[in-house]
Amino acid sequence: MIEFKKKKVGISLLLTIVTVGIYGIYWMYVLVSNTRAINKKSGAIGELLCILLIPFYALYWWYSRGNDVGWYFTENRRYSSSNGPMFFVLSLVGLSIIPMCLMQKDFNSFDSEKGTGNRESGSLEIKDVVKVFNANTVNEKVALNGLSLTLEKGDFVTVIGGNGAGKSTMLNAIAGTFPVDEGNIIIDGEDITKLPEHKRAKFIGRVFQDPMTGTAADMWIEENMAIAVRRGRSRGIQWAINDADRVMYRDLLATLDLGLEDRLSTKVGLLSGGQRQAITLLMAAMNKPKLLLLDEHTAALDPKTAAKVLDITERIVEESKLTTIMITHNMRDAIRLGNRLIMMHEGKIIYEASGEEKKKLEVADLMALFSKASSGQFANDRMLLS
Questions:
Q1: How sure is the predictor about 117, in pLDDT bands with cuts at 50, 70 and 90?
Q2: Which of 13, 44, 157, 205 is spaced 20 to 30 Å from 211 by Cα?
Q3: What residues pair up with 348 in beta bridges, in sequence order?
Q4: What does DSSP assign to residue 352?
């Protein structure tokens, strides 16, 4: 009986050593690769389960399983068959956390100065891109007709053009909403033409025209921001939001000057269109994406709110030095914002200005240029009235 006990104890100790060894390897991996903030308490839950549950189960099971070998807290306590399965389940949970911990990334090490994910904006190169909808039918529409465009890191490009000029189609092609028929799209030297939309989301931020798009209406502000900060990153086992996260979210929301920093538990669907669009813009930029796409993101707002969102846009882009493409129908905003301006018509770029040339532009100049390039076909009333 004594030898039997020694054998059981030896196996239990071996399992314990293996478990602690795995944990040690994981901890060394964290220290060397710096993939997770060491001082975050939430990540420790999985590690504690790895350390405690498995060896505890091993000891309990091996001591309690035999007919005459029981782990007695009192002289009369016998092994209960209901206890074994309970600790078995807990042990499986602990065991399953090991590979998840190994795959865990640095979710909580958000730096409001540098952001998470990509630390620098990226360059963009669009080469001879063609996109045709309903090809070979009576409804055939050439949306992009050999489009070529190059953006350097930090460029802020405003895009104008009439309805159907291909502006939004260009952004959709960059974001991967649909595949292009010809040409290439390259970000930071990497050809992403064949990359699906969900994989491009890792390094592309986007704000749509509709304030209802880009956020989850039935979720709190802090929950929306928690999702945004994890966009394009691997998942691990930890609390979704902790106190440090809430402090970070409040600091970021305070920069909007909309009083949202004290409303973290408010559902986004209860906010005004301007507030919601401002949060969407903040969420799109908080990871410092390589490319920020703004598709008429103030068009659905009243003039006062639109001006506020544009001011926030200008500040975020300037502070983070984000490579940005902004579509607008307001020619004054197109001239005032950004360092470059392009005009599109029938899926092509028909005019481009930058530097001093752009600064000297007037709305009348743009209208004359558009009229000349498009054979007198004015874009729409919004462009004329802007």
A1: very low
A2: 157
A3: 345
A4: E
Exposure string of 225-244, with b = 16+ CB inside 10 Å and e = fewer, is bbebbbbbeeebbbeebbeb
Q: What superfamily in CATH does domain 124-385 come from? A: P-loop containing nucleotide triphosphate hydrolases (3.40.50.300)
Whole-Å CA distances, 55 to 52, 61, 92: 6, 10, 12
pLDDT surpassing 60 at residue 5: no
Q: Are strands 156-161 and 182-187 parallel, antiparallel or unpaired?
A: unpaired
DSSP readout, 259-270? SGGG-TTSBGGG
Residue type at 263? R
- Residue 183 pLDDT grade (very low, low, confident, very high; cuts 50, 70, 90): very high
- Where helices occur in the chain by DSSP H, the ranges are 2-33, 44-65, 83-103, 167-175, 197-200, 221-229, 243-254, 273-285, 303-320, 331-336, 355-359, 363-373, 381-385
Helix (H, G, I), strand (E, B) or coil at 351: strand
Measured between alpha carbons, how far is residue 139 from residues 133, 164, 165 in Å? 8, 14, 16
Q: Is the pLDDT of residue 295 over 70?
A: yes
How far is CA 353 from each of CA 126, 262, 276, 341, 370, rounded to the nearest angstrom? 18, 43, 32, 5, 13
Q: Are 157 and 353 in contact (CB under 8 A)?
A: no
Closest-CA residue to 322 (of 106, 152, 125, 199): 152
Distance separating alpha carbons of residues 222 and 283, to the nearest angstrom: 11
Residue 9 has what DSSP assignment?
Answer: H
* Contacts with 145 (C-beta within 8 Å, 6 or more apart), sequence order: 130, 166, 346, 347, 348
The ranges of the chain annotated as CATH 3.40.50.300 are: 124-385
Cα angle 193-167-320, degrees, rounded to a multiple of 5: 75
- Nearest CA among 109, 110, 122 for reference residue 321: 122
